[in-house]
Amino acid sequence: MRVTVLGAGPGGYVAAIRAAQLGADVTVVEAGEVGGTCLNWGCIPTKTLIASAELLHKARNAKSYGLELDGTITPNIQKIVERKNKVVDVQVKGIRGLFKSWGVTLIEGRGVIMSPGKLEVTLADGSKQELETDRIIIATGSRPAQIPVFPFDGKRILSSDNAINPESIPESLLIVGAGVIGCEFAFIYKEFGADVTMVEMMPNAVSTEDAEISQLLERELKKNKIKLLTGTSVEKVDVKDDGVSVQLSNGKTIDASQVLVSIGRSVNSKDIGLENLGMKTGDRGEILIDESMQTNIEGIYAIGDVTGGVMLAHLASKEGVVAAENALGGNSHVNYNVIPAAIFTSPEIGSVGITEKQAEDKGLKYKIGRFQFRSLGKAHAMGEISGMFKIIAEEGSDKILGAHIIGAHASDLIHEVALAMEKGLTTKDIAHTIHAHPTLAEGLMEAAEDVHDAAIHSPKK
After folding, report:
1. Could you tell me the domains of the chain?
2. Given 380, 437, 452, 457, which residue is catalytic?
3. Each residue of 137-148: pLDDT tens digit?
């Protein structure tokens, strides 16, 4: 069986490897670099910058840990970017090595689907190559949304792609959008020395998160002197020689050295041949798929951001596995009720399942368990006492509906609950599991106990 994957991002390259593991003759067509947005422009670059920012923060606060440092700690942005590039390069080489190991053929060029069994690839030198195939998996991803009022120039008006490669740190930065991307960059640039202001149309930062988590993050933004204007939109942007002047819906004007626009992404479904196939797409150009990841065209599958769902790299990877298995005769599926998510702010946020508001909207009867980071000995030892654990459980069945963590290592801690939900476990199952002391994971045990008013280290309610 010949399988061709269009796109080598976290969905595409994983789909290719799984198809090869199952015995298929696999070809990947990629116009850019393997790893896609996640590896080259998103997940890995930003987390590498965050690692530098976190270490800088620790160094600046060394005295609170009993350490005496001589001299001034300052960020060298060129060396920070160099390190980021090295990390990305290692990962890129890793994927290329996996392709070689599993016998996956990589064709570097822009692919267009001519028919369900044929693609045409335009190579870097302009020549064209035709591919015959039995199955196609579309994994072309997404890109930063281009909004007319924000003409990206890479100098004054930045996309997230620009923001990972700063030549210098601006004196002031206005971030439009206080979602996941905007908040992560806010903490990065603030630690590196910029005066950061955020503008968000919604009533809260990271508005898709549980309300209590959002409120705690806003408190941390304030503690870090990051200004946040919610319920506010941008009306007009004027680029000047020395910066940008931004007119807001509240009548105020903000002047900044640069503007970073982080208000969503657009799917990459244009110019890949969909019009040749009669493929069904949605209002945003997203490719419509069924539970097997198959489009309305038999033998053609689509995964990841281009399908317009939750834009998470790890979800794209899971969908890639499912698409590859089903393309080769399997019957796999994705459990969309258990998708852990992580936001790498300071402190981190981890979540899985539904929020309290969503439980209310569904008319569910539920109970909540909470536990504060400040009640954990390990958090005090680390100097990381900001944050909380929150578990939402269905009343009666004790089934876990969702969990939300804000605090140190929340992105790692959330997976205990994700596994519990995947396996149908209850809060009592977590509560009755012995957790090592002293650890941050004890907070999940205590939150699970608190669902039943039995948390040992919480005051009586």
Report:
1. 2-144+266-327 (3.50.50.60), 157-263 (3.50.50.60), 341-450 (3.30.390.30)
2. 437
3. 999 999 988 888
